[in-house]
Amino acid sequence: MMLGLRTTIYIVPSLSEAKKWYTKAFEVDPYFDELFYVGFSIKGYELGLMPEEGASIPRGENVLSYWGVDDIKKEYKRLIKLGATQHEAPKNVGGELMVASVKDPWNNVVGLIYNPYFKIK
Questions:
Q1: What is the separation, in whole angstroms, between the first and last Cα of the chain?
Q2: Per-residue pLDDT tens for 23-82?
Q3: pTM for the complete prediction?
Q4: What is the DSSP letter of 18?
């Protein structure tokens, strides 16, 4: 039985720089901080950072993790101000649902979603 999403991991070339950026972006300090992995608890979900080993790897856009937000336009603009770049501007995808995404300074896609229908069980 699937239990639901537990961890989203972003691969980065500089763990120390990424730790600083994600601490500002998600407004939370990491709870786990080692040379091989930095972990953040985001309202019970894991955001992980792992160092890139060897040559730079291509960043895919075939899988998106969307982080829930209350004000998608505000959060989108805030992340852009922190150094992210536009990937997908906020847009309505039906009813009150809105999605957006940015690329972090290392070209990883970070999704945002406003979904008032989603309830954690």
A1: 15
A2: 999 999 999 999 999 999 999 999 999 998 877 777 777 678 999 999 999 999 999 999
A3: 0.87
A4: H
Q: Which of 73, 82, 109 is nearest to 25 (CA)?
A: 82
Backbone dihedral angles phi then psi of residue 18, each to the nearest 5 degrees: -65, -40
Instruction: Say how far apart CA 25 and CA 100 lie, in whole Å.
Output: 15
Count of helix runs (H) and strand runs (E) in the chain: 2, 8
* Residue 39: per-residue pLDDT: 97
Tokens linked to 75: 């959060």
Rounded Cα–Cα distance for residues 112 and 40 (Å): 17
With H, G, I as helix, E, B as strand and everything else as coil, classify residue 76: helix
> Which residues neighbour 104 within 8 Å (Cβ) at sequence distance 6 or greater?
10, 12, 18, 21, 22, 25, 83, 84, 110
